[in-house]
């Protein structure tokens, strides 16, 4: 008997399921990692340089970002434990993604048990100057998630990322 595949949303998924959301900011973008201490400045990287984005944790230690997905801005929490980008039903609808009932066939492991989601593909996820095309995602049913998650289907396509001292540095 085949067991259904279950993807893990991670600790951040638990926090997102419980959180009502909070104000977060995309703090700054720069093309030089040593310049990270110069808070409040922003520079454009040369076209051939790595894109680097630094995000500061909010008061709860969450990394909230506002990427543009297919030219629509979405509030998301970065979740390094989530296998996929996970969209709330409301965010998916705003993006024009409306899966039918039969599409909710992917089992997703959460702190509240298994939730069924619908797979989708996002043409482009842009975070500052970092852009990733054709990102695998999942839409969760209404009420299953309070904030969309920027998971590893996006993060693993970067040149790298690190978390240190209340800062997350993303390298595109």
Number of E strands: 14
Order of helices and strands: EHEEEEEEEHEEEEHEE
Beta-strand content estimate: 35-45%
Task: Provide the helix percentage.
Answer: 10-25%
Corresponding CATH superfamily: Acid Proteases
The secondary-structure class comes to mainly beta
- Write down the overall geometry: globular
At CATH level 2, the architecture is Beta Barrel
CATH class category label? Mainly Beta
- What fold name goes in the CATH topology slot? Cathepsin D, subunit A, domain 1
Largest beta sheet, briefly? 7 strands, mixed
Average pLDDT over all residues: 79
* Helical stretch tally: 3
Detail the poorly predicted runs.
Answer: 11-43
Task: Show the helix and strand layout.
Elements: E1 6-8, H1 10-18, E2 28-30, E3 52-56, E4 64-65, E5 68-69, E6 72-73, E7 76-78, E8 85-87, H2 89-94, E9 104-110, E10 113-127, E11 130-139, E12 148-150, H3 152-155, E13 160-164, E14 167-171
Parallel strand pairs: 1-9, 7-12, 8-11
Antiparallel strand pairs: 2-3, 3-14, 4-7, 5-6, 5-10, 9-10, 10-11, 13-14
Describe, in plain words, how this protein is organized in 3D:
Strands 1, 5, 6, 8, 9, 10 and 11 form a seven-stranded mixed β-sheet that branches. The protein starts with 5 loop residues before the first strand and ends with a strand. Mean pLDDT is 79; it is low at 11-43. With 172 residues, the chain is mainly β. It has helices at residues 10-18, 89-94, 152-155; strands spanning 6-8, 28-30, 52-56, 64-65, 68-69, 72-73, 76-78, 85-87, 104-110, 113-127, 130-139, 148-150, 160-164, 167-171. The radius of gyration is 16 Å and the shape is globular. It has one domain (6-171): Cathepsin D, subunit A, domain 1 (Beta Barrel), CATH 2.40.70.
